Protein 1
Amino acid sequence: MIPQFDLKKEYALLENEIQGKLNEVFSKTNFIGGDNVQSIEENIANYIGVKYAISCNSGTDALHFALKSFGIGKGDEVITTPRTFIATASTIALLKAKPIFADVDINSGCITAKNIEPLITKRTRAISVVHLGGWPADMQSICELAKAYDLKVIEDCSQAHGARILINGDWRSVGTFGDVSNFSFYFGHHMTTIEGGMICTNDDN
């Protein structure tokens, strides 16, 4: 079997840089918060192009906090994709809401506005989009649909760090289209730590 990735080889390429940064963290004993965390929050916000990036312990918690911030709860429905990690649905269920699965596009593997719209009901509160494997969903169409039905949009960019979408001649980063977006730094993703997550938004609230 051909392995998907080789962490030992990846680490060997960056060993000196990683060890240097680890020594800085240990010397300051900034294991939670501190200037290292503030720095990555600022860098990610600037890189993506949003006002705020807020760190948390995992991409799963980032999803949970996003849903909770919209007041989603018992009796509500959130339309999402079946082609994803379990956290997409489990965070919805954790709040006693119901995940509603839209079919995915055969080419991108992402949900589409065309497949989402027939599933919208009076109980629908949000659309949770997942950019899987670095392939972005058609966010322009999905956001236009969400606006027409007054729905919130959550973008899960856990497997799409750095992906961009061409809109009217300009490249725009995933994570800037929805009301809120989340990123995961799980070791199997594009941008990694041992564990960690980030919530990004332009919403002052």
Protein 2
Amino acid sequence: MAGIIATIWPATDTKEKLIALHQNWVRILRLNCSHATHDWMEKLFSTARKVEKELSNSFAFFLDIKGPGIRTGDLEKPVTYEKGEKFKIVVDQKLVDNPKTMFIDYSHLLKDIYVGAIMRLDSGVFSIKVVEKNKDHIVGQAMNKFTVISKRHINLPWLKIKLPGITEKDKEDILFGIKHNISYVSLSFARSAKDLAELREFLYKNQSAHVKIIAKIESQEWLDNLSEIIRAADAVMVARWDLWAEVPIETIPSHQLNIVGKVKRKWKKVIVATQMLETMMNNCIPTRAEVTDVFYAVLQWADYLMLSGETSAGKYPIETVEVMNRIIAEGKKFI
């Protein structure tokens, strides 16, 4: 029967909420290092240990490290681009000459990009087509209207990104997690099995070879190298949020089916994640489509279903877990 991984943040970081999660069969807690500070995590670990002692049972902690992402710059105020609007994109902050000029912190962009390439911002919500390439900037054209705020993540589908596998921040976060006995670690925006090998070597050198590595399949490169990544990882996550910024959205279900099947045939654990009960961030019941999504993930023999915003920032985190448990139980009847 599939288990539930709950992402923890202010919606669920109290003793009462952690107890409620445990009572609803949540045994793995995800900490997202893209947002969580060490001070906050320190308090959470302390609270969770008290809950474990009180319940005479334990949680496993899953540290989701940030990885080598590409982002836009800081903005004084949000900038809105209209559909069809053209604007400059630069990699040197000094060349930002007006509010519509977009800075991207990837120094190889001007060399790697090509006219006709599609860039996706905010995990695909905003698409930009490259229509011109110059010595010190490129020109992008907005494919839809969108308002950009500071530090938005950029996906560059089909490009081989030249970034380190593990950043210095990642290393600091991992060492902090090791100190608090984490059980799992995953690396965001990695590109090959070499990145996983680098992470495993870092764990080994810090006397933490027991920590399991979760490979998040969230890019075209990882799909292309799926077999070797499955071999290199201890578990695999179908990370649908960033994956849909890299591949046509209509292919996500077939990619999920393929990934889950390949991982299970290698007798490794697989997690299905992202927007499984997204509506319950603001509503006390999910949509019928969300219920069906969870149900079919169970039928595919997913080992874990992961809740992200639903339990980290939603209005109904415990109710969400209760609903997911009921759907899992229903799906179990058919496998």
Protein 3
Amino acid sequence: MPMISIEDYKTNISPTSILFTRTDEMPEWLCTIIATIKALERNISQCIYVIDWPCKRIIYTSANFAKYCGLPATSSGYIIKYKDIEDVIPEGEMKMVNEAIKVLDILIKKMKPQDLLQCTMSCDIHMKGETMMRMMHHKLTPLTINEDGDIDLAVATIDFSASDKAGNFFLNKTEWKHYYKYSTETHVWEKKEKVVLTDLECHILILAAQGYTVDKIADKLTKSTSTIKAAKRSLFSRMGVNSITQALSAAALYKKM
């Protein structure tokens, strides 16, 4: 079979080219993408799913999908309709997600296609798993776009969230000095400047993630304990977080770790 590049995907997709109703009707190029994702799944713990963005259908989910949201993994011929997941997400949070996505569609229409393909969108929402409701972190990136510059397919991961509050809608591109955050109060995506981490702050976060105490971090970095504590307080304040776990999550957003 001839090799297919992402450029082929972009030029081959049109608003009608992915209108199939069963997974076994997927075109060959999409089957190739799904096969690649399946291979990736063997190396990560997160759940992966693929969304038909215009129709808001989940056309592929990894085998561990049920663990995160109580819905089955994709089987032959089966497609999860977007409305099907409403039963596993609290009504208020589902409304918030729909609002954010609706406004997001307006924002991304103003972006250059090459920028859009490199963006990551993320949020935290509760999902009903096999036994209980859990806060989950969703991270989504466009996979293919159509000739109009709109998203056709997107691939996303689900993992346990470090946040205790639903929302946290972000749109980010690594090279940007800014990011966008959706405000549930103003109902707009607000542009914000990224926090620039110092080398000391990065080292503190890395060592804290490895389980080192403040005293041990001070020893390793040949700094005083008071210096490390002051650096942590300053970092937490600028990031708007109150724990190392949340700080690491924020640092991942900025692609600084």
